[in-house]
Write a structure and sequence with these properties.
The structure holds 3 protein chains of 3 kinds. Chain A is an alpha/beta fold. Chain A is built from 37 helices and 28 strands. The chains are: A alpha/beta, B mainly alpha, C alpha+beta.
Chain lengths: 910, 353, 205
């Protein structure tokens, strides 16, 4: 960084050159020397000496690369990949390599209170909601804001009951903050309306895991990739979303030449990247929504043609339940021919019988190989695209079914691996920061565990028991509740409302009505548009510690500088860690509700040292570790190490570069935790479960069905009914899906889509884009997803390096469609659905001038990234790229996850 | 021919306009960059309250008058980017070479020098100089008096000499041989031919001024992007000292010293203007020999004695100062004064009386 | 005018010679920064050569033809074209692109506007040859095993032909198709000295 100042940039080039003319002619000095001579030797040395390196986990995706934060004078000046970290081994993707860039941009520096606050108790709706200009807010002190919040929340709780207060947490919060946030909601306020952005990320995998294995989280490690004999990706553009993971797979493919499969509606960089290595054993299922059927069909072919790959019946009997029904059903209804025919309405035969049979053969071969060797087999990775379906849970179950059937679990080198999106979404799940959950993979309904957690939280047991009786139909349902005046106030902690679907007709009207408190780091964050009270937060790299858990269950500590700065380099005194603010709210609200807050929160602000004035997250972490005793995520081995070896908890994480949960004993904790779970792979003497943490100790099969009906008749029927939910003509009004959950169950059980484009219109060659507008037709499938250069919507779009690579919203269009509808590459268009619209630039094929142009869609399918949603402006009056304005609200009735990938849309010219 | 009495006003207006355009073009260019990169609104916000911000806002406002906003549906109004960009691209360059709505105007000196250094005269090069050449051949050295921004600035700084006199400091009145500029031109062209160095382009003040303004404005915007708002001289180079030097010499030692005797561009225009069709002519019958015209002549000529030759730049100051209306622009190929019908009128009426 | 005598003629000739010598001397001093000065030369420029806008004639012809106006810089879509300041020798006032700072997006506006023909008009952007991008495999994070970056590939307007990716997005440049626009160098995330740089092959004279 020192050199950077000395090196040439545009401005000082000309500036220097005029000076150097004079200088050169006098002294004959070389210009290079002249430039570096700006720093004296002493200055250079002092700069180097002041540099510190802090350990942390990359703040972006769930791969969880080890990142070293370089700090000078308490300021983050750079990041570097951690060579010693077992996850990334010194490699990081472009987002992580530039993670320092957005840290000090556009920061929120003051506590803000909206002048005209919405008060749902009195029915007052603020006239300034939807604006975040300076004049709608007034600056306030933290204490004033806290008093306002406590008073309001307490009065709502007293009047309407605890469940009228909602909270959306985040997979970016530290584990400690999530623990406190859950305590605040379920314990102090007594509300079950706690959700997190993890809901839209991973809950389908979570509920699938619970259903099949009985406990959350992938039972695998990344190192299994290096032992696998076949790797399959489902709904996962790993090269863009989880690059480091993808390159580990690519390395494995290159060295061992293993077969790979990618199931994705687009030909993504993942597909082409694997084909670049070896096109002969790289396969691609170009399917939209058909994964369940194809997985079942693979099982069918294996059962019929490769019976040697199926686990023996006695093994299935000993370890699993429900396998007989599964095998019967698969054999009867899921032959490749049947499946291809049944899915023809949408997939149009893009996946062929031969492909399915080929994959089944490869799958069988890899399974047998792995079983014989005692390591290896099929390793399946799926991502958020696979989870974000109306039948997300069934998707997960289908994968696990196939793995159970072929025995691809319970040994190194194979297994089911869901790849998390957020760096700490895993912890949000583990800390139970969702409706009806308790910390450590237990439901709120579990009385015994509820009492234990109530004790750990130091709150009255009956208080938590009362919370357990409350209902909340998950994230999107929570917004509908708000529209029905059932929810009065909401907290947003390190999370943004624009991650939710159907913003214009559902989320924003709901937020307008409520009393909203937002903790945010950026001044122009869209959350501020609807917030009544805004609290500036400290971000990653600025905390005094805090734990993240990434996708292989690895807990790792995030060290930080303890200081926040704005763009000009001024210290932001008002920015606090989210955990501290949650603790303060517990205290303030608890006091108003008559709780003994000093007992609940024994933590004290530090009175000395570098981190003076903040709470010590390690104290909270110790409480968390202690509370994990007896769960299947037991971490108490770390306490034993602390006692015996005197190594602090965070120091253990730092030294080992993370510990994979569970770590129940001294030995396990000392060796870095448990790399693999289930089937006695855990090194755990008094394990609280047998083979699987499920009742009876057995994993569970369940045949998940898929049927669109005769020529799509069922699909048409259900999607027609679903299309009445959310209309731009009546934003914020009913009907509400929470009143019609049966419909969602029906859609889920037949594995349908939330919307169906007017395919007949699309197939009619004579129709044009203008006809679609005239006739109000929506002929295209539209999917929302991510682009490699950006991570979600806040940080990377504020980083210069990543923003200039992909600066604007685009929509990928198949060249055939572009030709047929006369769309030019680079043209600006509007994508319109029944609920809203956004603008994007047309990117045709992989040769497009619109960056990044890496993926190819099939005809009739459009794709846009949602990462760039607010890259033009967060202000709704100016914002034109808001992708989630168009998505549909329908959700998986069990996991609560929405389907962002299958909207019916049309293109309108601008 | 009698030009409107507002000759001097129009000349001033044109000079100011040219100087203004030279400042505007780099701003327009940068505005185009931001608009093209979709950064304009962000930059306007970032530069708020500074010169750079205002420049962008004014430019935007002006261009949107030329290319009005588009209306979409009920209440969506937005900048017609494409047309605004086209409008912004309609003005480019400086007096050294200017492009006006696609029309290229290049200084004949530049063409001459480039042709000599590269030993070739391609059509693109020549075509740019056609209009200036035609105008110069018809109207004489009007570039120096009506357009050249340096000429304008030196005229203005000449007014400072009055201030010096008021302070009872007598500024010098050095006169150099006007032929010196031909020597400089010759030396410069020789350099161009033999060393391939376009030396006169580095010495010719209007060209220097164009580059200085361009660099100055560009660097000011660059600095603003890095958070250093407001005016700055950081982009100015050595050439600015040279220009400043000319100005100071002009004030202290002699009026229009550079233009009269040293400017190589002036030499070119003077030579080209030899057969100009429009000249300042004296009507000997009307002339009262008041000599009002002599001190006001920027070029240090004596209109009263006629035969101003190639040095006259047709600025018309003498015409507006003539109390008798004896001086006027006329179509003519010679400098001979107009005489009364008698034919043998004396040189000066007073002498005759 | 006085009649010319032989003596007077001799004296005039002598006066003229002195005059010429004096003017020559002054011009010589004024010309120093334009002839020998190398003030703007930076280590970067010395190594990679000076990158001219698209369509530039071969360096010697370009320097001879360019009239040092700023039309190309004014026409530039990205603002990447800069004018070299006095002290840059014969290149003083000529357009240059510093791709690490801002690169050319091949809009070709400069070639259309150039009044001297120093930038060849009417070129298609595929035909441009400004230079060749060269990857320094020690510096490139994707090559040296510290990252999987891929920024240059995303930025390349001819990706897939001029620049392809290998394992961990490691870039390979194909000089046949590379036009040398420098967009890769602009976005390269290696800060102090870019891992991919455009070598123009135009020695700094």
């Amino acid at each position: 960084m020192v050199d950077r100042k000395a090196s040439l940039n545009r401005r000082n080039f000309l500036e220097l050159s005029s000076a150097t003319v004079a200088a050169c002619s006098l002294t004959k000095a070389l210009p290079g020397e002249f430039a570096t001579a700006k720093f004296s030797k002493e200055e250079l040395e002092s700069l180097v000496n002041e540099r510190k390196v802090l350990q942390s986990q990359c703040p972006y995706c769930g791969v969880g690369c080890g990142t070293l934060i370089q700090v000078e004078n308490d300021r983050i000046v750079g990041v570097a990949p951690d060579k010693l970290h077992p996850t990334n081994k010194g490699v990081q993707c472009i987002k992580g390599l530039n993670a320092q860039e957005p840290t000090y941009r556009d920061r929120l520096t003051k506590v803000l209170i909206r002048k005209d606050i919405s008060d749902p108790a009195k029915g007052h709706v603020s006239a300034t909601k939807g604006r975040f200009d300076d004049d709608v807010f007034r600056e306030a002190t933290y204490e004033e804001a806290e008093e306002l919040i406590a008073e309001r929340i307490a009065s709502y709780v007293k009047e309407f009951g605890g469940n009228c207060v909602g909270l959306t947490g985040s997979g970016q919060l530290t584990m400690e903050a999530q623990w406190i946030e859950n305590l605040l909601m379920k314990g102090v306020i007594g509300s079950n309306s706690i959700e997190a952005n993890a809901r839209m990320c991973m809950t389908s995998a979570v509920t699938g895991y619970f259903h099949s294995y009985g406990s959350d989280a992938p039972p695998t490690s990344y190192e299994d990739i290096e032992m696998a004999d076949m790797i399959t990706f489902w709904g996962h553009n790993a090269r863009a979303a989880h690059p480091v993971l993808f390159w580990r797979v690519a390395d494995r493919k290159k060295s061992a030449d293993i077969p790979t499969l990618v199931s994705d509606p687009r030909r993504t960089g993942t597909v082409t990247g694997l084909e670049d290595i070896n096109p002969r054993n790289s396969h691609h299922f170009q399917t939209l929504n058909g994964d369940i059927s194809y997985l079942n069909a693979i099982a069918h072919v294996i059962l019929k043609k490769h019976p040697e790959a199926v686990m023996p019946e006695e093994w299935l009997d000993r370890n699993t339940t429900g396998w007989k029904e599964y095998i019967e059903g698969v054999k009867a209804r899921y032959s490749p021919e049947q499946v291809v025919e049944r899915l023809r309405y949408i997939d149009e035969g893009r996946v062929t019988v031969e492909q399915i049979e080929k994959i089944a053969a490869l799958w069988a071969e890899a399974s047998i190989k792995g079983r014989k060797r005692g390591k290896g087999g099929v390793f399946t990775i799926w991502g958020i695209g696979y989870n974000q379906m109306l039948h997300g849970q069934h998707n997960t179950i289908s994968i696990i079914n196939l793995h159970l059937l072929t025995g691809n679990l319970g040994r190194p080198g194979c297994g089911t691996h869901s790849q998390t999106g957020q760096p700490n979404a895993m912890s949000e799940r583990l800390m139970g920061g969702l409706t009806g959950r308790l910390p450590f993979n237990k439901p709120l309904a579990n009385e015994q565990w509820r009492n234990w957690i109530a004790d750990c939280w130091r709150i009255p047991r009956e208080r938590l028991a009362r919370t357990a009786t409350l209902k909340n139909p998950m994230s999107i349902g929570m917004m509908e509740r708000a529209l029905k005046d059932d929810l009065k106030a909401m907290f947003w902690m390190y999370s943004t409302h624009i991650h939710l679907p159907d913003l214009m007709t559902l989320v924003r009207p709901a937020l307008t009505k409520m009393f909203v408190i937002a903790q945010d780091i950026y001044r122009h964050a869209p959350n501020l548009l609807y917030a009544d009270v805004v609290l500036p937060a400290a971000t990653w790299g600025e905390w005094s510690g805090g734990t993240y858990i990434q996708s292989e269950r690895r807990l790792y500590v995030n060290d930080g500088t303890g200081r926040s700065f704005d763009e000009q380099g001024n210290l932001i005194t008002e920015a606090r860690p989210d955990m501290d603010m949650a603790i303060d709210k517990c205290k303030a609200i608890g006091k108003k509700l008559g709780l003994n807050v000093d007992a609940i929160i024994p933590y004290k602000r530090r009175t000395s040292g570098h981190f003076k004035g903040t709470y010590d997250p390690e104290e909270v972490f110790e409480d968390i570790v202690r509370a994990s005793k007896g769960s299947d995520a037991d971490l108490t081995g770390m306490l034993e190490v602390k006692e015996k070896d005197g190594v602090g908890l965070y120091d253990q994480l730092r030294q080992l570069r993370g510990i994979q949960w569970p770590a129940p004993s001294y030995k396990v904790a000392k060796s870095g935790g448990t790399p693999r779970r289930y089937l006695k792979q855990e090194d755990w003497e008094n394990r609280p479960y047998a083979l699987f943490p499920k009742k009876g100790g057995k994993a569970k099969f369940k045949l998940c069905e898929q049927d669109y009906g005769e020529n799509g008749s069922l699909l048409k029927e259900v999607t027609t009914e679903l299309s009445q939910y959310g209309s731009k003509k009546t934003p914020g009004e009913g009907p509400f899906l929470i009143d019609n959950l049966k419909l969602l169950v029906k859609a889920r059980d037949n594995a349908l889509t939330p919307e169906l484009p007017d395919l007949d219109f699309y197939k009619d060659e004579s129709k044009t884009l203008d006809d679609a507008k005239k006739e109000d037709k929506y002929p295209f499938w539209l999917g929302l997803g991510i682009v490699y250069e950006h991570f979600h919507t806040a940080k990377t779009i504020r980083g210069a390096s990543t923003l200039r690579l992909v600066p604007e919203q685009y929509v990928e269009v198949n060249p055939e469609d572009a030709e047929r509808f006369g769309l030019e590459d680079g043209e600006k268009v509007r994508l319109v659905t029944r609920r809203g619209s956004y603008e994007a630039r047309v990117s045709v094929g992989t040769e497009s001038v619109v960056r990044p142009a890496r993926n190819e869609t099939f005809p009739g399918y459009l794709f846009s990234p949602w990462n760039l949603s607010v890259a033009d402006s967060a202000d709704p009056k100016k914002n034109r790229w808001l992708a989630n304005a168009v998505s549909h609200r329908a959700w998986d009735p069990v996991s609560g996850q929405a389907d962002y990938k299958k909207c019916a849309a049309r293109i309108e010219r601008i | 021919m009698r030009l409107p009495t507002k000759t001097q006003t129009s000349r001033r207006a044109l000079q100011i306009l040219v100087l203004l355009l030279m400042v505007v073009t780099p701003i327009l260019a940068r505005y185009g960059n931001y608009l093209s990169a979709r950064q304009l609104d962000k930059m306007v916000e970032r530069f708020d309250g500074s010169f750079q911000g205002k420049a962008l806002v004014w430019t935007d406002g002006t261009l949107r008058l030329l290319a009005p906003d588009k209306h979409y549906g009920e209440d969506v109004v937005r900048r017609d980017r494409k047309r605004v960009l086209e409008a912004a691209a309609s003005l480019k360059g400086s007096t050294w070479s200017f492009e006006l709505f696609g029309l290229s105007l290049t200084d004949p000196l530049a063409v001459l020098e480039s042709a000599l250094t590269s030993k070739a005269l391609p059509w693109v090069l020549l075509s740019g100089a056609l209009i200036p050449l035609i105008f110069t051949i018809l109207l004489g050295r009007i570039f120096c008096s009506w357009i050249c921004p340096i000429g304008f600035l030196l005229e203005l700084s000449g007014k400072l000499r009055a201030v010096l006199r008021f302070l009872e400091i007598r500024p010098g009145r050095i006169r150099l041989w006007p032929g010196d500029k031909f020597l400089i031109l010759g030396l410069g062209l020789a350099t161009a031919v033999f060393f391939g160095l376009p030396f006169l382009g580095y010495l010719y003040p209007p060209a220097l001024l164009g580059r200085e303004i361009h660099n100055g404005v560009t660097v000011m915007f660059d600095r603003a992007e890095e958070g250093l708002l407001g005016f700055s001289a950081a982009g100015l180079t050595l050439a600015s000292w040279f220009l400043l030097g000319i100005g100071i010499v002009e004030i202290l030692f002699g009026p229009r010293l550079w233009c009269r005797a040293l400017c190589p561009g002036g030499a070119v225009y003077a030579a080209l203007g030899k057969f100009r069709l429009i000249r300042v002519k004296r009507n000997a019958d009307l002339c009262t020999d008041c000599a009002e015209c002599i001190p006001v002549c920027e070029m240090g000529l004596n209109p009263m004695r006629d035969h101003t030759g190639i040095e006259c730049d047709n600025c018309g100051v003498c015409i507006s100062h003539c109390p008798d209306g004896a001086l006027r622009y006329e179509f003519s190929l010679s400098d001979e004064p107009r005489r009364s019908s008698a034919g043998n009128a004396p040189l000066c009426r007073k002498e005759a009386v | 005018m006085k009649p010319l005598t032989r003596r007077g003629f001799g004296a005039a000739l002598a006066r003229g010679a002195v005059r010429l010598a004096g003017i020559g001397a002054v011009l010589h001093v004024l010309g120093i920064p334009f002839r020998s000065g190398k003030a703007a030369t930076t280590p970067e420029l010395r190594e990679t050569g000076v990158l001219r806008p698209p369509g530039a004639l071969p360096e010697e012809d370009f320097l001879a033809r360019c009239i040092r106006c700023e039309l190309c810089a004014d026409a530039c879509d990205t603002g990447c074209i800069r004018l070299l300041p006095p002290g840059s020798g014969r290149s003083t006032g000529t357009p240059v692109i510093f791709p690490w700072d801002r690169a050319c997006n091949l809009c070709m506006a400069c070639t259309e506007v150039c009044p001297s023909g120093a930038l060849k008009p009417g070129l298609d952007k595929h035909e441009v040859r400004m230079g060749d991008a060269v990857v320094d495999e020690r510096l490139c994070v994707s090559h040296n095993g510290t990252g999987a970056c891929g920024a240059c590939h995303t930025a390349c307007p001819f990706r897939g032909r001029a620049l392809t990716q290998g394992i961990r997005n490691a870039p390979t440049v194909h000089p046949d198709s590379c036009v040398g626009c420098g967009l890769c160098e602009e976005v390269c995330i290696v800060e102090d000295r870019r891992a991919i740089r455009v070598f123009s092959g135009r020695a700094w004279t």
